[in-house]
Write a structure and sequence with these properties.
Rossmann fold; five-stranded parallel beta sheet; globular
Length: about 130
């Protein structure tokens, strides 16, 4: 299983050319075995992007988010993930959403597909880009 960062999920749907070759190949392989996931917090980020107009859609917010999540597992935000996110170094990952996504990948023992340099530079997160 792999975990997609929010921007990777958006790029996969709307601008796949932005994906690195390595990330695109890994995602394709994971899709063949239904092993692509996102954190539940990604839904919050998608809704925020849509509400702020940073992502455009002709559909309703719900329909758009459902489209983004087709063939993607949503990993829940658990108590353990919330605690781990709270323990992660805030100076390295100041965004609480990023800390929750990182904690989700870490506790599930899966690589995080991300182009986010802050995440990539965190030695305790297994990342792919």
């Amino acid at each position: 299983m792999i975990l997609l960062d929010t921007h990777v999920l958006v790029w996969l749907q709307q601008e796949p050319r932005k994906l690195s070759r390595r990330a695109a190949a890994l995602i394709r392989r994971a899709q063949t075995s239904s092993e692509v996931a996102v954190s539940a917090i990604t839904i919050v980020e998608l809704a925020t992007l849509l509400n702020r107009g940073r992502l455009r859609t002709r559909d309703t917010l719900q329909a758009t988010i459902r489209r983004f999540l087709e063939d993607v597992a949503v990993l829940p935000l658990t108590e353990a993930i919330a605690i781990e996110a709270g323990n992660l170094q805030k100076d390295m990952l100041p965004d609480p959403m990023d800390r929750m996504i990182a904690a989700t990948a870490q506790l599930h023992g899966v690589p995080l597909v991300t182009a986010d340099e802050r995440m990539i530079n965190c030695a305790w997160i297994s990342t792919v880009w």
